[in-house]
From TrEMBL:
InterPro entries: HMG_CoA_synt_C_dom, HMG_CoA_synth_N, HMG_CoA_synthase_prok, Thiolase-like. Residues 3-164 form the Hydroxymethylglutaryl-coenzyme A synthase N-terminal domain. The active site is at 79 (proton donor/acceptor), 111 (acyl-thioester intermediate), 233 (proton donor/acceptor). This is Hydroxymethylglutaryl-CoA synthase. The keyword Transferase applies.
Amino acid sequence: MSIGIDKIGFYVPKEYIDIVELAQARDVDPNKFTIGIGQDKQAVPEPYQDAVTMAASSADSILTAEDKKDLGLLIVGTESSVDESKSTAAFLMDLLELPEDIRSYEIKQACFGATAGLQAAYDFVSLNPDKKALVIASDIARYGIKTPGEVTQGAGSVAMIISQNPRILKLDHKSVYMTRNVGDFWRPTFSKTAFARGKYSNEVYVEFFETLWNKYQTKYDVTADDFSTMLFHIPYTKMGTKALRTVEKSVSADKYKKLTKHYQESIKFSREIGNLYTGSLYLGLLSYLINAAQENEKVLLFSYGSGAVGELYSAEIQPGFEKMIDKNLILDEMKSRQKLSIPDYEKIYQVEYKNGTMVDPSEVDTKFYLSAIKENERLYKKLK
Ligand code: COA
């Protein structure tokens, strides 16, 4: 049975900051941010947006009544959870008007969560071929104002429907993975912002990729020539570039040129949005599908979640995949965003809703929003 991604949806907040302006405000050479880090813009969510509202938006962009009827599993991968107990998935039941007879939960393992969800969905559909699974990655990447990680922030969500006979990406069920207890990035429960040993994280990420790529080649007796594209977890685009460079020594110049060209197509959206944490790899996939992918291409996907878990798996782009993606809608969503000044971004960043908050719906410009916090419970609404 063939199983994989049948639909892919996306949500990006409606405001962004310009990375050159951020560099100027921080008294940094803009080339460091645009070339050294590899970013151009950074999405900024409103205070009434969070992992729940963004997950609802990305899923809402693809779910039909037919899909809802067939759903058996809902998994949200996030490291920006709003509750230590209740899952982001449970909040989505009302917002998305989902039927009750589904299993739902949240997965956390830094930026690996969505891949864990995707693999669990694969297993679920294998056992329940008539059912579909909805896997959503939703995150707000926050390191703090004036920190070294500030330039690698971002926000957004990617939703995927996993089913048999997928019309976008068939998973090969060929995968290698590894886990190691590593202190490269963490966010304790008391903190709204992450702590990172950024350079160390880079080293571990590259080492995981090299280890898994060697393992994959041995296990399945393949080389880079068996794949046309390598997609990477891209919290910021320089990071994937570093992993890709490790392949250069083992392939022909022509092959490396092609892999690099395809990689450039896969990072276009990330350059414009920034870090989606667990959605980053899938934003790269979406960018590639929209900007360059060809039918029947064999692709490799490298997922990495600090702490650290890595997985490298392969997949095949399906004939007619373009018809399953609303390219114009996605490009319009990105183009129609408003630029925020750096002082305005800093103001929004510092807003923290407390118990007793009531959000005025006339000030909301997104379909799903946090409407109130009552008795410390977060309440959500959908704009009519
Ligand atoms: N023009 C062009 N490039 C420049 C430059 C300039 N004027 N100045 C610096 N650079 C380059 C550096 O050479 C470096 O490139 P390299 O990584 O290829 O060597 C890059 O810009 C970054 O410079 P660096 O001095 O390392 O920056 P930094 O100390 O500010 O740290 C990060 C950068 C990415 C480590 C930091 O932003 C961070 O910690 N982010 C969080 C990342 C993280 O942990 N994510 C989790 C990932 S899973």
